[in-house]
Amino acid sequence: MPKLQLGVLVSGNGTNLQAILDAIAAGRLNAEVRLVISNKPGVKALERAERARVQHLCVSHREFPDRESFDQRLVGELRAAGCEWIALAGFMRLLTHGFLSAFPDRIINVHPALLPAFPGVNAQKQALDYGVKVAGCTIHLVDEGTDTGPIIAQKSVPVLETDDEASLSQRIHEVEYELYVDALIRIAEGGLSVVETPSGRKRLVLGGAV
Question: Whole-model pTM?
C-alpha cells in the first residue's frame, strides 16, 4: 500500500508533529512527511522537523495582504512538495475556502474537546466553566465551519475536582498524540471516504467500516 504523503502545518511547539514523526520512524505509520510549514519563525516545531531531516519552511502570514493570498502560497508549497493529506498540528490560523477546496476531505485537525461540545478557542476553559465531568479530544476533518467537520476519532478523559485549565489541558494533550497517530494509521491502511446522508450532512466511512 502506498505511503500517506503528508503536509503538516504548525504554529508552535510541534508535539503532535513529533508524535507523527516518531510513529513513522518506528514503522507504525506508513507515511512520509513531505513538508512542514510554520506561519511563525523560530518555533520548536521547525527544530523538530530539522532534526528529523524533513523539509520545512516558515511562511509568515504577516507578509501577505489577506488570508486568501497567504493560503494560496501554502497550497503552492504543499502541492510542489507532493503532499496529498494535510495535518493541522497546532496551526493557529483559520483556513479559507481556497485552501479547503485544494485538498477536499483531506485536511485533518485535532481539537481539545469532545465535539460538537466546546468548539473554537479555550475549549478546556469552556468545559470547566460548564462543569462537565468528562472532557477529551477529537480528530476531525476540516470543513468551512469552526470545528464542525466529520469526526474521525474521539477519546475521553475525566475532569477531576482539582483540575484547572492547565492540568486538564495537559491530560488531554497526552491522549491527543496517540489518537492523532491512530487516526492517521487507519487512514493509511484503509483510506477514508466521505458520504452524504439523506439530511445533507457528511459522514465518514473509514477503513472500509461504516
Answer: 0.91
Q: How far apart are CA 154 and CA 145, in angstroms?
A: 19
Instruction: Quote the CA–CA distance of 143 and 65 in Å, as a whole number.
Output: 23
User: Is 79 part of a structural domain of the chain?
Assistant: yes
Shared-domain flag, residues 71 and 127: no
Residue type for 9, please? L
Does 155 lie in the same domain as 97? no
Q: Which of 56, 61, 97, 111 is the catalytic position?
A: 111
- For the segment 104-112, the average pLDDT, to the nearest whole number, is 95
Note if 140 is an active site residue: no
For residue range 24-82, list pLDDT tens digits in order: 999 999 999 999 999 999 999 999 999 999 999 999 999 999 999 999 999 999 999 99
- Which residue range forms the structural domain that includes residue 204? 112-136+151-210
Do 119 and 159 lie in one domain? The reply is yes
Report yes or no on 87 lying in a domain.
Answer: yes
154, 118 contact by CB (below 8 A): no
